[in-house]
TrEMBL record:
Sequence similarity: Belongs to the flavin monoamine oxidase family.
Domain of life assignment: Bacteria
Region named Disordered: 348-379
Residue span(s) of domain Amine oxidase: 108-345
GO molecular function: oxidoreductase activity
Protein name (record): FAD-binding protein
Pfam families: Amino_oxidase, NAD_binding_8
SUPFAM superfamilies membership: FAD-linked reductases, C-terminal domain, FAD/NAD(P)-binding domain
InterPro entries: Amino_oxidase, FAD/NAD-bd_sf, Flavin_MAO
Amino acid sequence: MVQHDGHDVVVVGAGIAGLAATAALVAAGRDTVCLEARERVGGRLLSTAAPPGALDLGATWYWDGERRVADLVARLGIATFEQHLAGDTLVQDATGVRRLPGNLLDAPARRFTPGANALARALAAELPADVVRLDSPVTAIHPRVTGGLEVRTPSSALHAEQVVVAVPPALALARIDFDSELSPELVRLARATPVWMGAVAKVVARYPAAFWRGEGLAGAAVSRTGPLQELHDMSGPDGRPAALFGFAAAQAVGPDFEQAVTAQLAQLFGRAAAEPETLHIQDWSDERWTVPPAMHHLADHSLFGHHLYQRPALDGRLHWASTETATEYAGHMEGALATAERAVTASLTTDEANSRGRQHCRAGGRTRGPDAGATSTCR
């Protein structure tokens, strides 16, 4: 049975951008719901428990100058610590493994003691009950004849004045029916825009201790022979939990991938690295609520922050909010938070304009639509 309900704003996606947008809209007094396809919040903020802390299988760091993340961390009271930097770098190529002095990969950054997903969980916990609705994939967004937008899930039809799409544009175009209402230029752009981490597998190997530090290594490595192409220390404060992590091309993941990874770790860091206590393999290309099919060929990251993402679509009622649409810090949590700010500002501005238009209509006039210069007959 399909349930119908109405709201000021519907936010699609409960990743960090969607949750931040939802929190800001609720604080502004807007009746807002956030629909999330998964049974958890956080999107690409995904952490797994590893006492006394957690290991991040998605977003990991934030850097100096990323004030939005820093402000959010401070407001939510999330404990953080500095990324381990001390030690030498390893380089692996066809000739073997070389050791270069100093950490040539990592820059000063901060990590989240309870894992990055703690930010998403804390944001969601602050929201009123039933604002975030899990297991609610959006299947369609259509303009309504009587005004506003209809947002459909398998079990509900929601009516909203504004919609914030806080998922990667390519995913939105693949999973959501827009009834051919988006401009052809926007459709082409969204389908061509890569999904950040969409073609990547992140591998995290946990050990009883950060033994590489005792050998003067930073845990940083680059490899031209793979399967892990870039590695870093992912240990928690004071080296606990102890872990290394690396990135691999998602296409490299297969039946022999785990064996190839442990063999490479042993080649780089010695016999102690050959048998991790746990080995987590997070293939982001296989996450159906992050990445649409056949994304490996999309590699034009210059499309991130494209000017079409900065303008609301569907007569000013649909707003983009994901790190791929950020004009600054694209691919970072900071970029996602920046797009949330932009979407909230645009939706509140449009809502105020529509409200003035409705008042003008009640006075017997015509109203200018949110798109440049457009006019519409008062209903």
